[in-house]
Amino acid sequence: MLVQNILNGISLGSVYALIAVGFALIFNVLKFSNFSQGGVMTVTAYAGYVASRYLSDRLDSLVLFAAVLAAAAVSGAVIAAAVERLAFRRLRRTKSEPVYYFISSITMGILLENLITIYASSNFYSYPRFFATSAVPLFGVNVAVTDMMMFALSIAALLALLFILHRTKIGLGIRAACFDVNTVQLMGMNPDFLVTTALMISGALGGVSGVFLGMNYTLYPQLGQMVVKGFVASVLGGLGSIHGAVIGAVLLGILEIFFISWVGAGWAPVFVFIVMLAFLLVRPRGIAGIIVQEKA
Amino acid sequence: MLRIEDLWVSYGHVQALLGVSLEVERGSIVSIIGSNGAGKSTLLNTISGLVKQERGRIFLTDGIGPDTAKLLPREPYRVVKLGVVQVPEGRQVFPGLTVRENLMAGAYTVNHAGRVRRNLDRMFEMYPILKERARQQAGTLSGGEQQMLAICRGLMAEPKVLLLDEPSLGLAPIIVKGVFDTVRRIRDEGITVVLVEQNANQALAIADYAYVLENGRVALEGEGRALLCDPAVKDAYLGGAQEA
Q: Contact at 8 Å (CB) between B70 and B60?
């Protein structure tokens, strides 16, 4: 039971990690928590669902799964870019306070969610089953194939993110913009391009996590409110730290699974938030706080 | 190399520049001195496109003849691509990136890996301390080292014109001397330098030509040496009758 819980927690945590690193990335560049990510996740989960309906006759399970994820990631990137253009660009031109970004992003999140409600109704949908076998034995317990897929692909996406940030020119530009989005202009970088790229990366990660969450639970317009998990994870890990976000997300996943098995699914969120509050009281910098403090 | 015609800039109701015109010759050091709030930084930031002018034009004249003058674009990143690069006041290195990453950030516009590597080697040769600290975070460097890094980061963009905003600010005298030696060396390599300074003495001493800004206007101009001996400049900027 213990091993089972830990494995489930890690795979759930790895999905939260996708949301959390998107948060961390945008927090670093624009200095606010981007809640529009929730709306983006809702839309991408539906985009993935639509893709799965259209392609399920034509493609095999694994190829279909890959195609669905790709559709979600691409639509996430496109929508995030549109959000930047609509909700953030003007604020950046006028050098607005972070609180305006915050309000603007929440607004966009709600807007996207409700657009989906209007077009797709508030009914529940479920993804088709992608894999023939549903569970395989591992370490003496049964692990769901979906969980393993979620874990493996989340790790792959996180590694891809680290590669982009640390090994490419655009990544260097984004990391430089984290320190000073105005000074990078003097290096010949276009801040609009860098900010849009960062949002597209975070949107693509959100898209992948949207499909995973839709598969894990069911598909409904408020799915995007799971973005709060990403937020909690990045608070636990230390706002703005990519590594911290991953650690916080895995911690959150494990905590959640354990709380569910101890106090039930109804009370589990209460305890999760108590842990978050305790963190804010005792260690507001989060787990990776040292890194963040240095940047301030 | 640069020609500025009748530049007017304001921040809301505060007029920062009132019709500044000046000319920067290729391969020279042009110093701009003046007291706090005279508009020196505003002038550099307007050239870089960080601040938009209300009126006036800025030309890049890197070709021969009058027809080759190009109007500088107004987006800062496009100004850099044309070879006009600013090293900002207060250095503004990226504190959490390594020294090497800071330099690579400077080379963002250079799309040729071999040239970037050559430039990087040149910087490391010029300042071995940067090579020693290449993997250290830039925030851990001393003020003088950060200034060197900021200048090198500017040079990594292969500028035609380097705009230096107060490079000696807050540095110990011995290090200030090193900074001015570097400025001279950069000019000798063929890069045109526009130097904004509070340290009027040194700035005039190394300048080929200089302008004195007062309340957003050009109050005086002339060769660096000539201004150094000008009684009005001496009184206002060089500490009265003291010898330079």
A: yes
Give the span between the Cα atoms of B210 and B74, in whole angstroms: 25
**A296 to chain B, minimum CA–CA distance in Å?**
10
CATH value at residue B212: 3.40.50.300
Give residue A7's domain range.
Answer: 2-295
Give the pLDDT of residue B66: 64
- Residue B33: inside a domain, yes or no? yes
Q: What is the CATH number of the domain that holds A191?
A: 1.10.3470
Beta bridge partners of B197: B33
Q: Are A207 and A18 in contact (CB under 8 A)?
A: no
| Number of domains, chain A | 1
Range of the domain at B191: 2-237
A225-280 residue pLDDT tens: 999 999 999 889 888 888 899 999 999 999 999 999 999 989 999 999 999 999 88
Q: Which two tokens stand for residue A226?
A: 């799971």
Q: In what order do the strands lie in the sheet with B70-71?
A: B14-24, B2-11, B55-60, B70-71
Mean pLDDT of A60-82: 93
ipTM of the complex: 0.91
**Does residue B157 lie in a domain region?**
yes
CA angle A102, A88, A294 (to 5 degrees): 60
Chain B residues near residue A188 by CB distance under 8 angstroms: 77, 80-81, 85, 108-109, 157
pTM of the model: 0.91
Question: Could you tell me if A152 lies within 8 Å of chain B, comparing CB atoms?
Answer: no
Asked if B96 lies within 8 A of A295 by C-beta distance, the reply is yes
Overall number of domains in chain B: 1
Q: What is the pLDDT of residues B55-79, one digit of tens each?
A: 999 999 877 666 678 899 999 999 9
Reply yes or no on whether the pLDDT at B122 is more than 90. yes
Which residue in the block uniquely carries the two structure tokens 């200034």? B147
- Can you tell me which residue has the tokens 């500028």? B159
Helix, coil or strand: residue A128: coil
**Is A63 within 8 Å of chain B by CB?**
no
So what's the pLDDT on residue A135?
85
SS3 call for A1: coil
Q: Is residue B167 part of a domain?
A: yes
